[in-house]
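ENTRY TYPE: paired fold submission
RECORD: A
CONTENT: sequence, then structure tokens
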Amino acid sequence: MKNIKFTILVSLIIITFTSCNRDGDYKDISYFTIDENNELVRPTDFRSWVYVGTPLTPNDMNNGKAAFPEFHNVYIDPMSYDHYKKTGEWRDGTILIKELVSVGSKAAVSGNGYFMGDFIGLEATIKSKEHFANEPGNWAYFSFTNPTEGTLAATGKAFKTNQCNTCHAASAGDDFVFTQYYPVLSAAKNVGIDVAPENAAQRSTIK
């Protein structure tokens, strides 16, 4: 009898959570923690989130002095991705992760190019009216990278506004997020919660 009651309870929890996802009511679901010092606790398990792309601005194409010469593997929490699909907007509580990867080999059996090397850093961006009411768009930017010790910090302090927000405000395609460089996000915007744009057959022709 106890097992039956437990099974029913678990089923109700699953149904409730699924309904929350389907309806797009994500305001109480958070994938990040801000500690008592107003610092972001380093997120974990983010590789199971939604992967949206890997931009690269290599030194070779920027006179040897690229501002961001490494690969940036970008992940977004699944609730915010679903919310973006339904509404075309970034919810309060959105978090994006940038996992930094060095440029490794520039040659492979397939030809010359830029290939990933080692994991070298981790950064995050969050939208939170509660914690960053005075930041433009309520966005804040963090780094956990310690290049001298080679280990990630347990927490990250938000960058000053002029270090990140100013550039994002001026150039980002959609609410401080550079969606114009991520076709996964461009295709997902406002398509609806029940639509999977990756399943569409239509593709641009190869030139």
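RECORD: B
CONTENT: sequence, then structure tokens
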Amino acid sequence: MKSPPTVVGIGELLWDQLPSGRQLGGAPANFAYCSHLLGNRAVVASRVGRDRLGGDLRQVLIAREMTDQFLETDSTYPTGTVQVELSGSGQPKFVITYPAAWDFFEWSEQWRGLAESADALCFGSLAQRSVESRSTIQKFLDSAPQGAFRIFDVNLRQTFYSPDVIISSLTHADALKLSHEELPTLGRLLGLRSLEPCLFCRELFDRFPLQLVSITRGENGSLLIDPRGINEHRGFSVRVRDAVGAGDAFTAGLVDEFLRGGSLAAMNDLANRMGAWVASCSGAMPPVPSDGLRNTLARLQMKS
């Protein structure tokens, strides 16, 4: 029997301080959790403090049947936290603490071994706000097999990004995922001529070794564009409780279907189902539904 793919989320792992209480979070960790629910061998590569929050974080990760083997421990800097405010429609606003343990990744033989075993990995711009973690993430990407699927989930947060980080990340990536709100900022940072999605992507394909670009539109679905075509999805009708982690769940669904050899339409469908399900729950890492994740996803109704 073929073993499940190894899917790695490398970057920030932290506590989201929500109005309803503390929730485990961080985009790469949310991505890895949803990849785990989809049946992959999903791993978080990050760094936590030698503090109570770090210990609690490890316990929660293990309770959700994920390994803490690839979490480094920092004796100087604390476990990361984020203050999350929700709008009336459940859209999040983040205030991210700095510095945090995940700003100080250290390259190790253990992480090299994980990188070399990866079938897919997801990374973003936020964990590259420090020189130390940026260098380690780039080494991780370089050490992964040539055929591993590298997806850059841009995740522009506060002022923790720069043209250099974006350009370097796109140079290392096979796929880019961004929101429609991030598109103008990314276009400005890269000096692109057009913000029309198809022309925007054509410029990206000309400049970088990308195979795929995903542009999410919140409750209105998404566009998937590759050099050969485009697929548009309207999204699914759900009652949004909070949208924290919905984009990361979307990325997990996209990667899962990509690894299965799915079409643009199949990738877009599973990605939107995962994003809609998480948005209908509280927190970025909701428990598995009582009747199973796949059954719950299958019942979602597309927007008319």
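NOTES ON RECORD B: The chain is about 35% helix and 25% strand. The chain has a mean pLDDT of 95.
STATUS: closed
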